[in-house]
Design a protein that fits this description.
With 179 residues, this protein is mainly alpha-helical. It is built from six helices and no strands. α3 runs parallel beside α5 and α4 packs parallel to α6.
């Protein structure tokens, strides 16, 4: 049963991500769920690696949980911070989403399964996206948003290049520059 703990944490992250929408106007509930999402994201991988509970299902659940969280984060971002969102922000955001969807389609065609690669750039962009609502809560600054969008765009492009470049799927490829 212990070896399922990372998967249970990923499932909890999916549930909490969906619940964020219900708590969008309840600051205490929102922050609590947001903290749980971040904690489960860190703990599922840590526990899986530390106790050798790693599995293909776990990696897929972790990636899917991240995907659900990011989609909901976009929804929240568009609703909470509409005052600083420009047309250019929306264009870049749509571009990032399109790149991610193209990559998913390509991985399904090429590898016969959906693949989300755990690159360093994806991890950095995930951390930045995680803290974006908190950063914007205290400082609504367009430059901060642009920096985060650029990092997320680079991560999306790197993952697409990995899919194009490598014949085999490797969920834990560090970078397009590393084998």
């Amino acid at each position: 049963m212990k070896n399922y703990i990372p998967n249970i944490l990923s499932l909890l992250r999916i549930i909490c991500s969906v619940l964020l929408i219900l708590f969008i106007n309840n600051r205490i509930g929102f922050v609590f769920l947001y903290f749980i999402i971040g904690l489960t994201d860190v703990l599922d991988g840590f526990i899986a690696r530390r106790f050798m509970f790693e599995s293909d299902l776990g990696a897929k659940l972790d990636s899917f949980a991240d995907f659900v969280f990011y989609i909901i984060l976009v929804f929240i971002y568009l609703n909470l911070y509409s005052s600083i969102i420009t047309v250019n922000h929306k264009v870049v955001l749509v571009g990032i989403i399109i790149i991610r969807l193209i990559n998913l389609l390509l991985t399904k065609i090429k590898y016969k399964k959906f693949v989300f690669v755990h690159t360093i750039a994806n991890k950095v962009s995930g951390i930045l996206l995680y803290f974006l609502p908190i950063i914007l809560f205290y400082r609504q600054n367009e430059i901060i948003v642009w920096i985060i969008w650029v990092v997320v765009f680079i991560a999306a492009m790197e993952e697409l290049l990995i899919t194009i470049k490598y014949p085999e799927a490797n969920l834990n490829r560090i970078s397009v520059f590393c084998k």
